[in-house]
Model the fold of this input.
Amino acid sequence: MALDTTTAHGPEDDDIVDAEIVDPEPADAEVIDGEVVEEPGRLDRIKAQARVGFDRQKANAARRTGEWLTTKDVCDAELALEIEDKRRREHSLDTRELTERVKTLRSQLRTAGEADALVLQQQLAAAEAQLMLRHEADADRMKVSGKDLSRARWSLKASRIGGLVGGGFLYANAIAVEPALGLAGLAALPVGWFYLGRPFAADQAPLSGPLPGAPAVGIPGQPGAAPETFVPQTLADISRVSLVKRDSGRVQGEADLVTALVKAGIITESQRDETHLAGVIEPAGPGWTATVELPRGVKASVAVARVEELASSLRIKKSRIQISPDTSSDGHDGRFVLWVANADNPYGTGKVPSALIEAQIWNFWEQGIPLGPDARGDRHTMHLLWSSLLVGGLMGYGKSYFARLVAAAAALDPTVRVIVITGKTGPDWAPLKHIAHRWIAGATPEVIRDVLDVVNGTIAEMQDRGSELDRLYETDPDSVPEGKITPELAAKGMGPVLLIVDELQELLDGAALVQVAIDDDSADEKARVKTRSGRDLMVEGFARFVRVTRFVGGMGVFITQRPDADSVPTKLREVCAKRASYRVKGDRSAKMVLGDDAVANGAAPHLLTEDSKGVVVLDQGGEEGHVTVKADVIDLPQFKEICQRGRQLRTEAGTLTGDAVDYGAQDAAKAAVANLLADCLAALDAAGVDRARTEKLVELLAAHRPERYGELTKTQLQAQLRDAGAGTTRKLGPIDGLANPNGYLRDQIAEAHAAK
Done:
């Protein structure tokens, strides 16, 4: 019942209240927008509840079906356990087989004859090593990676979908044969629907929920809040996988290594049983090594050419791998030696100072050139006498430093004559001015013609040496036992000649712009003068120097930073027995410097990385083969000190010649001027005066250094100080009892000394 009250506001009936009875609304009614709407009855409510329940069952069934098809009902932890169990069973089987093989080999070895004993011992050693490595690697083998989990999950998906499709196909065929089976299938539908549509329990939460065994923690930032279950972000949080990078380069035995060869495409799967190790995998320096016997018909060069693929299959960087054909007495073309470093950069990043820095003298003949250590830490030396060297590679990786080692060793041997030709000016080779017989820099037309004259003149001089050797062979054969120069002849002035040519590409480019007149035997004086390209003449001159001067001590070092057919002409490259290459781009450039054979045998400067500065691949030709080393370093100031020591050695031995004599004379004159000015300042300071008459200054100098200035006269001192930039005498004011005599102020001498 509702009570509606209103108040009338009249002057006469202020105290009267009107009351009206309103009829009550029906019990099952609802007023909406002023209209009465009856509430739903019991039957309608039952229908609505049934609809909600059916929708919930449908959602549960769809969710369970989707999770089953996408394998979301199986968490990564369960998959990891299944994979581990499978691996443990397989590993146990393999271990048992390997153990039985070891027992069999031991039994056979006891009764084997001498002929078979060696082979059985090698097989037994390999099997025991594999068994030992297998035991050591048990924990690593059981680790499950993300790739393993992904593969297992996809396999489970495929099996479920395949089973579903296969079951449906069989059911359809069964109905076609016996239609009554269709009724049985319809009877099973309610059971399946009830099973799929049942409510989810609390422990059946989606995969993003907690995993079994995970610890519970509180919610950060909400003090006092109820703790919720910890959800690991990765499998590493529950110790199912390891996030530490595995050292995949450490193979677990012969089988693993052969598998890597298959993956790299060096051998095929069908050739697996024909591939084995000659010996065992064993430590070698900071890494391990193995000698691989390939199947018949497969050459070692195939493995050498697929270093990058092998590195990929071992999951390591290519810089860690070295492959070379087995050149030992037991080796052949189907066997190669593999060495794998423990570190990504086995050469390190530090600089190793050369032993030449501290050496006071060096025997170029016997000691050669100390180069540096290889990846295993073994040091190497190159002997350049009787051969020439070509150095190539990209800019900034150490070519000049490598050639500087050769030049430093030659500088410290006073019997070696050095000629320097560089295609650009700069300080790199300036220290050699102290000892160089000829020193030429630049690539202008005038410089190019000067280079051609120097090369031709040197060849002519060396051929005269050859004539002298012929004469000595006739008159004194013991002095030239091999028809070549000897250390004794070198000490008498017939020493080796080292020709250093830097920036070869710049010289050849500059020479290509120069036309040089050549001799013409034609009798017609009016005929046009014949010319040839300076580039062709330069290439021929360098190549001829290498060919015809070798037996009389001629050696060439040619350096280029653009290893292509134009900058490394075949005519010059082929006469250089030794070749060194720093990092290059691609095996084509590597072959341009080192040659096809060296690259085919494993020399790989194109596989060096950005971290390989200072690392050089040296092919010495012949049976010596190639070696990769981290070259020692001589910085420019140290190189200058070495050259100055070399100058002193040549001065004492009487072998300082050519441009070095003139450079030394100019240098000595500059030093004498600087010494005079410094001595004048020291003499004035010792006397405690800031000025002196000329006569007095002569007396002070003689007292300061009598051995140098004991015979010095007043006129000579005035001339020398004038040439030194100190100017003429000046008025000194009252001094020595004289009113204003002439002489020299300390300030004017100090100013001239500072200018020097």
Remarks:
- The first helix runs from residue 42 to 70.
- Confidence is low (pLDDT under 50) at residues 1-33, 136-140, 205-248.
- The first strand starts at residue 2 and ends at 7.
